[in-house]
Write a structure and sequence with these properties.
The complex is a heterodimer. Chain A is an alpha/beta fold. Chain A has a single domain, classed as Alkaline Phosphatase, subunit A, CATH 3.40.720. In chain B, the strands form nine sheets. Chain B has a six-stranded antiparallel sheet. In chain B, strands 20-15-23-24 form a four-stranded antiparallel sheet. In chain B, strands 12-13-22 form a three-stranded antiparallel sheet, with no helix packed on it. Chain B is globular, with a radius of gyration of 36 Å. The chains are: A alpha/beta, B alpha+beta.
Amino acid sequence: MSHHSLNPEHLFYNRRKFLNRCGMGMGAVALSGLFGKALGVEAPSPSSLNPLAPRKPHFPAKAKRVIHLFMNGGPSQVDTFDPKPMLTKYNGQMLPGDYIKTERKTGAALGSPFPFRKYGQSGLEISDLFKHTAENADDMCVIRSMHANVPNHEPSLMLMNTGFERVSAPSMGAWITYGLGTDNENLPGFVALCPGGVPVVETQNWRSSFLPGAYQGTHIDTKNTEIEKLIANIKNQKVPDLYQRKQLDLIQRLNERHLEERQRDAKLEARIQSFELAYRMQMEASDAFDVEKEPDYIRDMYGRDLQGRQMLITRRLIERGVRFVQVWHGAGQPWDSHNQIEKEHGRLAGECDQAIGALLKDLRQRGLLEETLVIWGGEFGRTPTVELPTPGSNSPDTKLGRDHNHHGFSMWLAGGGVKGGTAYGATDEFGFKAQENPVHVHDLHATILRLLGFDHEHLTYRYAGRDFRLTDVEGKVLEDVIA
Amino acid sequence: MHFQTYRRIFSAIAGLAVVAMTGTAAVAAEFPPEQIEFFEKSVRPVLAENCYECHSAKTHKVGLRLDSRDRVLRGSDYHKVINLEKPEESPLLLVVRHEGAKLKLENMPKDGAKLSDKAIADLTQWVKMGLPWPEEAVDLTESKDPKDHWSYQPIQNPAPPQVKETGKLRNEIDRFVLAKLESQNLTFAPEADRRTLARRVYYDLTGLPPTYEEVERFAADKDPQAYEKLVDELLRSPHYGERWGRHWLDVARYSDTKGYEAGGRERRFIYAYTFRDWVIRSLNEDMPYDKFVLYQLAADHLVKEDSPERAHLAAMGFLTVGRRENTFEDIDDRLDVTFRGLMATTVACARCHDHKTDPVPTMDYYSLAGVFLNSEEPEEFPVVAEPADTPEYRAYLEKLAEKQKVVDDFLEPKLAVVAKENPNIANRRFQLISKLERPDRRQYENLQKVVDKFIADSRMEPDKALVLRDKESLRPLRVFIRGNPSRQGDVAPRRFLSIVAGENAPEFKEGSGRLEMAQAIVDRNNPLTSRTIVNRVWGYHFGKGIVGSPSDFGLMGDLPTHPELLDYLSTWFMDNGWSLKKLHRLIMTSAAYRQASVHPEADRYTQVDPANHFIWKMNRQRLEFEAMRDTLLLTSGQLNQDIFGRSVKLDARNEPPRRTLYAYIDRQNLDPVFNTFDFASPARHTPERPYTTIPTQALYMMNSPFVVDQARLLVARDEIQTLKDPKERVKTLYRLALSREPTADEADMALQFVSSQNDPVLEANRQTITQWQYGWGDFDPEFGTVNFRPFTRFIKDHWQPATAYPDRETFGYLALHAGGGHPDNAEAHNTVVRWTAPDDMVVNLSGVLRKPKAEGDGVRARIYSVSKGLILEKVAEPGKEASTVLKGVSVKRGETLDFVVDCMANNSHDSYTWEPEVTNAADDSQYWNYGEDYSGPGRLATPWENLAQALFCTNEFMFVD
């Protein structure tokens, strides 16, 4: 029997009998949140019966989808996207000026072992660590003046992902899926790819918190290659496709009788429809994760390794209309190079650079980059100074590594209405602290929402007597980052 | 104080005499014209130019507005800014004189130059005059006094209204509901039929469906009081406490874990279940609600730890099972659960500023936060039920002491040093620990982690209560400006909410004040408590509260659809001893509740009232995740209906599975299936569950191994298996899955569905799989056969009798796998592989029994046939093997051969390998090899199982009319 053959008769039967009748109108109550008014226009509220149906944002926007490449652990800005010749000059010497406090003690300046080069027509400077990514420089806007609140992973991850450091709040992906729904209801609207397990603070990174569970990120361990292991309940191991269709037809015929006796009930109708959606999702999802279907040259371009596969899955998901894909480098905090920055960052960038470069290129070639906002970064950056060994902390033989640094770090945006080939803001001459046009994480969130067509002050959800937003009571939009 | 005007109107509305009106506010118009002129010329321009950017209508930083006299007098969210007694010392003047540091205030204007000396002098003069200000038009944007809001008014006891259709009334509730319907020219739907009512009432009160027999018995009951009898019977069911206990756990944001803990520290509360069990027990005993609340907030004040009442200490889990973060986040969580949960009041908003809409000033937040700041968890939680003094328990205590000793040996000498340096805290262990050097503390934490894990993993740990106690030395709390602990304002006296207790309410006297706070919550005159619980109960019964926002009765919340009814019920509830069971009975015996969920005039009614606000029919409700899963397990005959006990992981597939209420709730990494089915997030208090319909719910029903398994187990039930007639089978399936019989039509559809799956290839495939069966047992000489019991669990490619492996309680290492297995030494705990002959034939048996390990006393293999009894016996000595060959065994079709392995005298090191093979002597291409054929539960579901699963997937299964 062929793969999930969809008998036209079945489709006709179900469509005609049910789906067209399922108006979803009457009785489909809006979710308890306010889908705020902006510019005097009230955006439609998500329906509880079909919470993932696509919706329009407050105003027209280029970016429709988001890819967030999360370099968890905190990549070093001075070794990647923020060239600092002065740091090299001071290599081995104490930096002038006040000592800047970080989590652990640091010592002398540690110049970057990685050379920077100019790329593209814009001449954006990027280090050799990301030479494949750099080929897309003219699409990238590097924000070199990011800053966060504290030099600790947990609160910084929470801040970057939810806008709050401690209290339970929805993740950015959940907010955006709440705001826009998803263009492909046969797939989860918000997917978090993380190979080998979960990052620090775990599922809080993609939770829906007080938003309905439908907006929660679906975690997929991309270390697995079998579809059954990638998505829960995507296939029934015990019922062949042919019989499952028969089974579903029986269910729907019973449901039809049940519905007829109960007058119009949007909740019953919605559930009937959800089974048809689920049936189609089995095929669609299996297909989306099957990178074997890609031609060889594409697979080679991404690289036939873990990062290559998960970036390729990312593109396949985005192409199919998934709203938000967050791609984590790995479980735990791989980019946390307290020790041996040259070796460690070299290895990490070596793992993902080719795949990221290929992803950007591939998106562009397919015309997807214009509508897809790509975000790259960690929860904070690293010190330009060398970390000193701390008793009872990291290993006593720590050397040539960098400590956490929330005072200044780099992130980049690409595609989705971003002004490409530019650098925004700057750190001080050593790359320690954001100095020119500092950008707080809240500002980044406000800007991301704007790129997607939202006024961040009006994408709200009422909870516990208050209208919550991703940006809390902060956030300013960086107009200069937007094309 | 802050709300002079509010107070005035509130008092007037409440029918109280306006006793004292502070002069300053009331005589605003009385200033001489020259003072008004001075204000207009010399003061208002200064304010407008220098202050209004941040302190007027549009923006009012720190809650301060300087654009009306009342607002200037009110001050900021944290301070007064004017002192009329000592004008010169007014904070407003200090900050413009740049002397703010005296009061730890920022100098003003913040971003501009210091005011001119003249401007400062004019402002000073103005304050000395008593703030002359002309009478100005009322600001329409603030026309309504929040204290007038309905929920803050005293609860009334309205007389039930008159109605036209008195014949439709069953009790007083109906008068309120029907009067409202009649005013819209609507009326009740007819009463639901008996079968519908049975299903509704069973689910509503127990979370489980009625059996077919129960439905029919009720339907046939001629007693006019049959319905009331049923409600009473179910209110007495122990499952009532489980069902309604879970509702309460939503309110209480129940979780078995604290949330995220870095560095591998123990996340489990360990004893959270004692709170859950206390809730179930208290509801079953119909503990008066006021007492129910008092225990949850202050049991430590109400019962002694050595008295029989100490079981009530577990109630305090209400406060303590919340998310753990740090002191002030934990306090916020406790305030939130207390006030949203018990009084539908959102105090958390006032943490950073006066509540934007509700009359909850920041001062109130910190007054109550002070109560929790002065309550702490003890170093040892009190035991609430002494464990039995068994050898196992004693062994556990010994082992625990041994493990703890490792920690103590490291810690005690270090603490002794610290204690010497800090004699004032010498006996406060927690504090001493916090003063250790970082590497020592880390070392201690790493050691303690091991002990904590040991305790949490143990099933022997006694039941303890997660209590709070008042601190010995009390600490005053100051207001945190903008919620920031490093910017502190005035001291917040510990006392109750001003909206209930009035301004300047007396301070709490006893300890932290927690008991007094609890008493103020359940005070009869508190306008919110009774209304809140009555509305919750109504909401769970009807699917929608009288107030649609059950945890927010403030100005942002919904208005009650039936305010008089809410008050009537709230008064009735208190008059009837705060009895929840009486309240359920009153609600459930009303005509309003007994309505059908369809209405003969639905089309017209839907036009008038699409959301059914007026209650012209019953709201159809979908089963929550718990009810759905419990029903599946009940239907498949698997559900363990014991009440109480430790939480068990949802996917543990323990034997037999418990009700979902007992599932282990991991706040940090909640099992995704909970989210899929709109479970109450344990992050914070849940007023009502979200309602979403998403395809992943359908995928779960269609594909999850759990649902597929329940379908298999349902069909495997004796009630089905003993039936040969397919029609009878369909009938019984319907009875078991849907508590009713199928219509003739439905039976036909079902039979057609089953017969349409007669694919010969698939059938053959199924056959192959079922040639071997896997289980345990022993030869029973009385019957001359092996007493074969199939293994029920297939985990990690092992067939085993229980989920745990090894199963320490009963089965030890007993299991089978593809290559062999392991017997246990208890009686009959031998592995049995059963082969069933597909036809009459003569077979040859072969195979090699091996016992790889050199230790132990060997294993023994025996083969039994039904007709001949024992036909072969071999022993494999330790480290050796024995061949199990036998030729020419004749078998009849359907006859079984049992391959039994036992452990001899002891079962240590008794892992063996044995892959017996059965060959048809007449045709050696036909053979059955145990290892090659080894498989889990049948690879493909049978048509009957597919039918059972289809019934599980229907809307009928999932919804209650």
